[in-house]
Amino acid sequence: MSTSADATGAQPASRPRVAGDREVEILESAIDVLRDLGYDRLTFDAVATAARASKATLYRRWPHKRDLVIDAVGLFVDCPAEQDPDTGSLRGDLLAQACADGGLDDEVVLGTWSALLPVIHREPELARGIHERFVAPKIAAARTVFENARGRGEVGADADLDTLLMILPSLSIHEALLSGRRPGPERIAEFVDAVVLPACAATLAPAPEAR
Q1: 20-74 sits in which CATH class?
Q2: Would 133 disulfide with which of 30, 66, 74, 151, CB 3.0-4.6 Å?
Q3: What is the pLDDT of residues 146-169, one digit of tens each?
Q4: Helix segments in the chain, DSSP class H
């Protein structure tokens, strides 16, 4: 959420915070309600009940439920899946990231994303917040992996990394939405071996023929 000055030059008032651990508990409860009920049916009543908090506390901290949800997905920031695994190979790095806490095989992350996908196209402010707090950090982490792989010669110098780094999450999330369950490490490995790595190989210049 932006804290930039408005048209008059005034800075918007900051929202009052809830004490550290208690705020985390409320945000975790919001994630649970979001996964169980979806965004449209998520209410302050439901979150307050799940968190054993008062609605007044929630309303003081989060004026709209989108603010609550955006802050809740911020719990996934700096998770293990956003760290550089540095295994020495693109395959190893992709699997390590995808199967870490907060990654593509994380049931909580997939459930959260599944609940948000149907609504972000019609909620521009929600979409912006989710991209900033949820999507952008994960794209940045994946880009690091592919840039390192390009430096090792596993990806072509002129390859479109924007496309390559979206293949694995697109396949994994799409399958999770269709099947209603997370893909699992074995399925993710199949995506990497059958689709991602061949796509990376296609961006490499062919080796010169031996004479």
Answers
A1: mainly alpha
A2: 74
A3: 999 999 999 999 999 999 999 999
A4: 20-37, 44-51, 55-61, 65-73, 90-98, 107-120, 124-130, 136-151, 161-179, 185-191, 197-201
